[in-house]
Write a structure and sequence with these properties.
220 residues, mainly alpha, three-stranded parallel sheet, 7 helices, globular
């Protein structure tokens, strides 16, 4: 109730800096922040971390709304390793274990955590929180490996390409994780917001909701 989506700004595969440097007449984020219309701003950086523009958006937002909160989406790793060319085929993902995948995710998460901690240290409250989507995706892949993800037979079914653009199960999971972080409440039991044409069954939605809450509620 009373939620309003103020706006979205999309640049494919972008760093936060690309959004900061976007021409003023096109920069809907800056316009909304300066108008003090935003209570929560989410940012989804690519692999360029630390990104100085995260700090800049935080300062701009707080200047116009001192009570504002910011969420940084810590996504899943590109190419399963953050190294371009590390994967030769989608099917190669099916051979990966969680032990194979976790080190790169931890490296990416640590870089984001360092920047967020530094920003929060400048303020009298934690103005920035992290949405641990990447760790939730690891839990989903673990469920797939164990045969516990309804309708998903193999890990490669979760991705559209080698880079790692997500198929509907990852998109739904990402949404539930961000919901849990923004609102501080469990998504478990919510009506599915989108069946993606049947690609995400009610049973899979239920699992994704539980994975999202398990991940958020245990992430320090």
């Amino acid at each position: 109730e009373e939620h309003e989506t103020v706006g979205r700004q999309m640049i494919g595969g972008s760093s936060v800096t690309q959004h900061w440097e976007l021409a003023e007449e096109k920069n809907r984020v800056k316009e909304a922040l300066r108008a003090a219309k935003v209570d929560v701003l989410t940012m989804s950086p690519n692999w360029v971390i630390p990104d100085p523009a995260i700090d800049k958006f935080v300062e701009l937002g707080l200047k116009h709304n001192p009570e504002m909160r910011f969420v940084i989406q810590m996504s899943w790793t590109a190419f399963d390793s953050m190294t371009r060319g590390a994967l030769k085929s989608l099917e190669e993902r099916d051979t990966k274990t969680i032990a194979d995948l976790r080190p790169a995710q931890i490296l990416f998460a640590t870089a984001i955590e360092l920047q967020v901690n530094a920003i929060n240290a400048k303020h009298d409250r934690p103005v920035v929180t992290i949405s641990p989507v990447g760790y939730a995706v690891l839990k989903l892949r673990e469920a797939v490996i164990e045969g516990k993800a309804p309708g998903v037979k193999k890990q490669s079914d979760l991705y559209r390409d080698l880079l790692g653009h997500g198929q509907p199960p990852i998109l739904a999971l990402c949404t539930y994780v961000n919901y849990a972080v923004i609102y501080g409440r469990s998504p478990v039991g919510l009506a599915p917001f989108d069946t993606f044409g049947g690609a995400v069954s009610p049973e899979l939605h239920k699992l994704l909701q539980q994975i999202a809450w398990d991940t958020v509620s245990t992430y320090a």
